[in-house]
Amino acid sequence: MSTEQTPGALAGVRVIEAGQLLAGPFAGQLMGDLGADVVKVEPPGVGDPMRQWGREKPHGHSLWWPIVARNKRSVTLDLRRPEGQELFLRLVEHADVVVENFRPGTLERWNLGYERLKERNPGIVLVRVSGYGQTGPYSERAGYGSIGEAMGGLRYITGEPDRPPSRTGLSIGDSLAATHATVGTLAALLHRERTGEGQVVDSAIYEAVLAMTESLVTEWDVAGYQRERTGPILPNVAPSNVYPTADGHTVLIAANQDTVFKRLAAAMGEAELADRPEYATHGTRGANQAELDERIAVWTAKHDAEALLVLLHEAGVPAGRIFRAADMLEDPHYAAREAVVRVPDPTFGSLAMPNVVPRLSGTPGSIRWTGPTLGQHNDEVYGDLLGLPVDERAALAEAGVI
Questions:
Q1: 319-321 and 72-76: which strand pairing?
Q2: Which of 10, 45, 230, 260 is 20 to 30 A off residue 29, Cα-Cα?
Q3: In what order do the strands lie in the sheet with 240-244?
């Protein structure tokens, strides 16, 4: 991969990121990937706790930080002090977007609420990511991604039916809220281009999760149907499951559409299955889901995984392995599309990480550098952007403001 700086679709947009941990910083990562100049504001001395997360022996450095802070410039600033608040407002004068994910009311306590920001920059877009949103009876509660996943309905339907609710192995609630926050930011910037007006983007974790739950609420409201935990399947969607192979692997097969099931039945050597009343339609296959899955599992268990996948792909049946990190690094499709890229890093030499998504044909995003050291860009931002002289910067640093 080339690390040559690419302008990107958001080139010329400056984002001040005042959040920490994941939801706010992931929104900043998405915007930085697409070319925005993201200036990350961190507390002096300690910085974002994400600098400490994901540490693995023997190197003792975070492997998460280089990704979530990539393409960002780091400055230190104490927002609890009046001098720091004034400096932040000066940064806002030069910005298009402010991203924050503090508990609602925190910016207001620091005299940095939207109305104050708007006084300095009428076109500013303030992006606020929180557990419960900026209003409502729960708004001031502490809200982590896991709580939002539970309240938004995802936790209840995740896992095996005979066990307590599970979780995905990722901070999916934070990431969903950040993704929705980014969509809202782009919409707000388009509105500002048309009208000159800024606004507030309010992205709540539980609502971002809720938005992913399809017709879950409507099913209960209309039919009294409660979705439950169903493990690797979706009820009444068949066949779509993981199936065993002769060499001890599993293969995921998704052939629930009528035409695709016909192709699967032919590949199994049982073309007549597609015409049998209990399997002929989506509804009847769903009604006989367990029996059909057992029949398919008997067939897949006679084949090694690779041979089975070749057979299914040739038949036009969607199927695949369940990938782990090692599979991603070795897969030819990943390699051809550069879905995972190696990026130079001053600590590790180079790091493999997910590439920028989505892909834009005319103004592609890029990974220009990995996560910076704490305050690495203080002189660049406070000196070049704000014009603070060297002695003033030194005095602010001595006082612990930056």
A1: unpaired
A2: 45
A3: 240-244, 250-254, 319-321
108 phi, psi to nearest 5 deg: -65, -40
Q: Which CATH architecture has domain 14-212+338-398?
A: 3-Layer(aba) Sandwich (3.40)
The single-letter DSSP state of residue 203 is: E
**Omega into 82 within 30° of 0, i.e. cis?**
no
In this predicted structure, what is the pLDDT of residue 143?
87
Strand, coil or helix: 2? coil
- d(Cα 368, Cα 35) in Å, to the nearest integer? 9
pLDDT at 312: 98
The confidence score (pLDDT) of residue 64 equals 93
- pLDDT at residue number 56: 64
Tokens 């399947």 -> residue: 233
Between CA 320 and CA 164 the distance in angstroms is 28
- The amino acid sitting at 242 is V
The C-alpha atoms of residue 197 and residue 214 are separated, in whole angstroms, by 33
Q: Please, what sign has the CA dihedral across residues 315, 317, 322, 326?
A: positive
Active-site positions?
174
Homologous superfamily (CATH) for 240-323? formyl-coa transferase, domain 3 (3.30.1540.10)
Q: Which residues of the chain have pLDDT under 50?
A: 1-3
Domain with CATH 3.30.1540.10 in the chain: 240-323
* pLDDT at residue 63, rounded to an integer: 92
pTM more than 0.90: yes
pLDDT by residue (tens digit) across 98-127? 999 999 999 999 999 999 999 999 999 999
- Give Cα separations from 388 to 9, 88, 354, 376, 377 (angstroms): 30, 13, 37, 16, 13
